Amino acid sequence: MDDMIWTAARDARAWLDAANGTGDTELTCRILKLGEETGEVAAAWIGLLGQNPRKGVTHTRAEVAAELADVAFTALVAIESLGLDAQATLAGGAAKVRARLADASPPGGMNRGGNGDV
User: What is the number of other CB atoms lying within 10 angstroms of the CB of residue 44?
Assistant: First the structure.
């Protein structure tokens, strides 16, 4: 399963490269796609909460999670499109989080110094 994710991200990048090219405009669109996908997460969460009285509750937690997965996968494709290895990049990000967790202050939460990332 794990290898399927990384292979799919590389395959999606290759497919987009073949269809749309690899110039700066295309790379910009791939990065901006994250914003579009994030908007879909927001819409799903609003639908889960029933915040639009006209529509009521329209989404489930599973649908919100599926939209979050789309954001994550879109980010992996964007990383690959930068010419970098998404798996190694994500592992590096996870290592930073683990180091911050190791330095986290006791009850009351993590020490949120720095840039505010997890």
Answer: 21
The amino acid at residue 53 is P
Are the C-beta atoms of 46 and 54 separated by less than 8 Å? no
CA dist., res. 118 & res. 105, Å (int): 13
Residue 86 in tokens: 């998404």
- C-alpha distances (whole Å) from 24 to each of 3, 27, 46, 61, 84 are 28, 5, 34, 36, 15
Question: How many CB atoms sit inside 10 A of residue 40's CB?
Answer: 16
From the list 88, 89, 91, 98, the residue with the least C-alpha distance to 118 is 98
For residue 64, what are the contacts with CB-CB under 8 A and spacing of at least 6? 41, 44, 45, 48
Each residue's pLDDT expressed in tens, for the chain with a length of 118 residues: 589 999 999 999 999 999 999 999 999 999 999 999 999 999 999 999 999 999 999 999 999 999 999 999 999 999 999 999 999 999 999 999 999 999 987 666 555 555 556 6
